[in-house]
Amino acid sequence: MELILDLEPGTAGRTAAVYRALRSAVLDGRIPAGHRLPSTRVLAADLGVSRGTVAGAYERLVAEGFLTARVGAGTFVTAGAPRPSAVARRTPAGPLRPHAGWTLTPEPASGAVPAPRYDFRTGIPDARLFPFDTWRRLVSAELRLGANGPGTYAEPSGHPALRAALARYLGYAPSGSATPPHVVVTNGTPARPRPDRPRAAAPR
């Protein structure tokens, strides 16, 4: 059995080359129907390729109906393998014609793609539910208020209104009173009692 191989670099290219050579030999009649092919080990040694390369070509030809693998007997050319007379060349198909029941949608002008009626993409909220008018009004009002000093830091002691509210709250405590200049708002977390610290017992 003579095979003409055009080996390409890489395992996939070699497998395809062995496949094409065997398929061409079957179609040309150089390997007759019912002929037993050599084992993958023997053919791989003759061609100078790996056994997996030949095995991959055999498996593809078996899947396409050119070869038949028999357990314990070997691999044979299928009796009903297609021949050149039965292998018709594919002619380019003509233009697709619409079905009578189809409704054709005209293509948009200038390449614009019309927006779908329902957008099922994930992570995209429905923009119709967002209050754009209210958002635009609030943003405009905030920009007008901060237009005189943009980019400046706020009061380092804390927001004046918050300091005034804290001063009023401290005024209700019996320990004394405080004024907003005496209150400083800082970052932090409230202290929690240690679990090992004993708590005072409630009076009986």
UniProtKB/TrEMBL annotation:
<dbReference type="InterPro" id="IPR051446">
    <property type="entry name" value="HTH_trans_reg/aminotransferase"/>
</dbReference>
<dbReference type="InterPro" id="IPR015424">
    <property type="entry name" value="PyrdxlP-dep_Trfase"/>
</dbReference>
<dbReference type="InterPro" id="IPR000524">
    <property type="entry name" value="Tscrpt_reg_HTH_GntR"/>
</dbReference>
<protein>
    <submittedName>
        <fullName>GntR family transcriptional regulator</fullName>
    </submittedName>
</protein>
<dbReference type="InterPro" id="IPR015421">
    <property type="entry name" value="PyrdxlP-dep_Trfase_major"/>
</dbReference>
<keyword id="KW-0663">Pyridoxal phosphate</keyword>
<comment type="similarity">
    <text>In the C-terminal section; belongs to the class-I pyridoxal-phosphate-dependent aminotransferase family.</text>
</comment>
<feature type="compositionally biased region" description="Basic and acidic residues">
    <location>
        <begin position="193"/>
        <end position="204"/>
    </location>
</feature>
<keyword id="KW-0238">DNA-binding</keyword>
<feature type="region of interest" description="Disordered">
    <location>
        <begin position="85"/>
        <end position="108"/>
    </location>
</feature>
<keyword id="KW-0805">Transcription regulation</keyword>
<dbReference type="InterPro" id="IPR036388">
    <property type="entry name" value="WH-like_DNA-bd_sf"/>
</dbReference>
<feature type="domain" description="HTH gntR-type">
    <location>
        <begin position="12"/>
        <end position="80"/>
    </location>
</feature>
<dbReference type="Pfam" id="PF00392">
    <property type="entry name" value="GntR"/>
</dbReference>
<dbReference type="InterPro" id="IPR036390">
    <property type="entry name" value="WH_DNA-bd_sf"/>
</dbReference>
<keyword id="KW-0804">Transcription</keyword>
<feature type="region of interest" description="Disordered">
    <location>
        <begin position="177"/>
        <end position="204"/>
    </location>
</feature>
